[in-house]
């Protein structure tokens, strides 16, 4: 089952925006992040598959969509576009099991601009 979690975030994200790629120990999930210019978009491995997370820190409210793009040729959608405002963080779990190396994709539905994270493997 796919799950969308929405949380308000008050903490600063300088470390999150500054970290472009990080790999944790076996007890931690592998992750990759990219700056969007108005926030940070990340992909993490998850026991059920892969999580993506967008923390918007500035700019106008945006209509965006999450996708997961895997090296095995499969692409997964999250169930539709959603709005996100500055100060919000939204996360989605792609409960697709192991698909090998995958990237998170964040699409701005108003402009067509998109961002891809680096690959994480599960």
Structure description:
This protein is 4% helix and 52% strand. It has one helix and twelve strands. It has one helix at residues 14-18; strands at residues 3-8, 21-22, 31-35, 39-46, 49-56, 62-70, 75-77, 82-84, 88-94, 101-108, 114-116, 120-121. The longest helix is centred in the N-terminal third of the chain and has 5 residues, at 14-18. The protein is globular and about 35 Å long.
Describe the protein's topology.
Blueprint lengths: L2 E6 L5 H5 L2 E2 L8 E5 L3 E8 L2 E8 L5 E9 L4 E3 L4 E3 L3 E7 L6 E8 L5 E3 L3 E2 L1
What distinguishing features does this structure have?
122 residues, 4% helix, disordered N terminus
Approximate helicity band: under 10%
The first-level CATH class is given as Mainly Beta
Largest sheet: 6 strands, antiparallel
Going by helix content, strand content and strand pairing, the class is mainly beta
The outline comes out as globular
Q: Helical region count?
A: 1
Annotated CATH topology: Immunoglobulin-like
Distance between the termini: 18 Å
Poorly predicted sequence stretches spanning 5 or more consecutive residues: 1-27
What value does the Rg take, in angstroms? 13 Å
| Integer count of domains | 1
Strand content: over 45%
Q: How many DSSP E strands?
A: 12
Query: Which CATH-level-2 architecture?
Result: Sandwich
* SSE series: EHEEEEEEEEEEE
Mean pLDDT: 83
Main sheet: which strands, in order across? 1-9-5-4-3-2
């Amino acid at each position: 089952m796919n799950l969308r979690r929405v949380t308000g975030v008050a903490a600063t994200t300088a470390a999150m925006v500054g970290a472009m790629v990080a790999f944790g120990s076996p007890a931690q999930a592998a992750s990759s992040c990219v700056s969007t210019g108005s926030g940070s978009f990340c992909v993490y491995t998850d026991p059920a598959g892969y999580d993506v997370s967008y923390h918007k820190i500035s700019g106008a409210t945006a209509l965006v969509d999450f996708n997961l793009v895997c090296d095995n040729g499969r692409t997964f959608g999250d169930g539709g576009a959603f709005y996100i405002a500055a100060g919000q963080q939204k996360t989605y779990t792609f409960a697709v099991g192991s698909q090998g190396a995958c990237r998170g994709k964040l699409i701005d539905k108003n402009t067509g601009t998109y961002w891809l994270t680096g690959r994480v493997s599960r």
